[in-house]
Each structure stands twice: as C-alpha cells, then as structure tokens.
Amino acid sequence: MEIIKLIGAIVLLSGALSLLVSAIGLLRMPDVYNRVQVGTKASTFGAILSFIGIALLKYDMWFTNENWLGRTIILVVFILLTNPVSSHVLMRAAYFMKFPLSKLTKVDMLKDDIDNKVVKEPENE
Amino acid sequence: MTNIDLIIYISVGIMSIAMLLGLVRFFIGPSVVDRVIAFDSLTISSLAIIGVIALIANRMIYMDVAIVYGLLSFMGVIVVAKYIQKGL
C-alpha cells in the first residue's frame, strides 16, 4: 500500500510549508500582537499536520507493540490544548504592559471593555 | 532512495529554514515578547523535526522526548508571561 505512504508524505510536506509561512510572518508583521498571533496559529497548524503525516507514514506499525498512533494522538491533543493558552497569556501580559498597537489597528475591543468597566485592569504587585 | 524518502528530506530542509528565520527574529526582536514568541515558534518547529527524526531512525522512544520538550516549552512561556506582568 504505497498510496497511504504517499498521502502521508504530502501531508508532512504541507505541514512543513505551513511552518515556513509562520516563520516568514514572524519576520514581516509590524506589531507585537500580530507577531504573537501569526507565530502561534500557523505553527500549531503546521505541527499538527506534520504529526498526522508521520502517523500516516507509519501506518503498518499502528497496532503493534511500538504504539506510534497513540503517541501521535497524545502529542496532537497536547499541542492543540497548550499552545493557544500560552499565546493568550503572553498577549494579555503584553497588552497590560502597554506595548503600542500598530498604526493600522481599527478595532480595540479590550480598551472599550476597560472604559465601560466590564474588565478590570489588574494591579501590578 | 524512493520518492517518499525524497519528500521527507525536503520537509526536513523546509523546517530547518523556518527555524533559521525564527532565529533571526529571536536576535533582532526589539522587545522581550518578540523574543519569547520567537522561542515558542522555534520549539514548535523543533518538535516537528524531532518527529521526523524518529520516523527516519525508526525509533519510537524519540516521540517521548518530543512530548517532554513540548511540556517544558509550555511551562517556560507561562512563567515568562507571569514574570513580565510582575505577577511572580
């Protein structure tokens, strides 16, 4: 069954291309917030596609003692849970440290919420 | 070398180029948040490279290394974010 391995290799290649797009966006974006967003979303997508490709390439070892499928599922679920959480915490910390927004920004909903006293600004210390 | 092996090696090369570009942002980043997010992106790319190395070397144990490395990266980013918010 060479066709499953070929599909896995193509999925792995598209994951690698998504990681490359993430790195290029990390260099070109004008703002801290844009960099955090592009550096997390595209690289999460690329890593998940890469691990799906690896699992498809080892399809003949799925239900043997070497449990490739289980480990790959654990890794994908782990990346999918932790990576958005860490980027959200980092961007919230950057916002409350008053990093400047880009000049192209149109909407700042967190500022509106702070002005309307829906969200309270955390006190340092 | 079949076509499938060729595609796998090309994928490793593309991931390495992505890591080099992230390293440039890590060095020139003007603020600390840029460096932290460049570190996070480097870690995700190296997770994928560790997975491909486990595939090429046919060793399952390297996937465990990838799991522990991802856990350490998550802890590192959370700790640095709490630190720059003066909450630690």
Notes on the protein architecture:
The complex is a heterodimer of chains A (125) and B (88). Helices cover 71% and strands 0% of the residues of chain A. Chain A has 125 residues and is mainly α. Chain A has one domain. Chain B has 88 residues and is mainly alpha-helical. Chain B has one domain. Chain B is flat. At the A-B interface, helix 1, helix 2 and helix 3 of A face helix 1, helix 2 and helix 3 of B.
Total DSSP E strands of chain A: 0
Shape of chain B: flat
Biggest interface, residues from each chain: A-B, 56 and 50 residues
Task: Tell me the domain tally of chain B.
Answer: 1
Précis, in short:
By secondary structure, chain A is mainly α. Helices cover 71% and strands 0% of the residues of chain A. Chain A has one domain.
Describe how the helices and strands are arranged.
The complex is a heterodimer of chains A (125) and B (88).
Chain A: H1 2-28, H2 32-57, H3 68-96, H4 109-115
Helix pairs in contact in A: 1-2, 2-3
Chain B: H1 3-28, H2 32-57, H3 61-84
Helix pairs in contact in B: 1-2, 2-3
Provide tags for this entry.
heterodimer, A: mainly alpha, 0% strand, elongated, B: mainly alpha, 3 helices
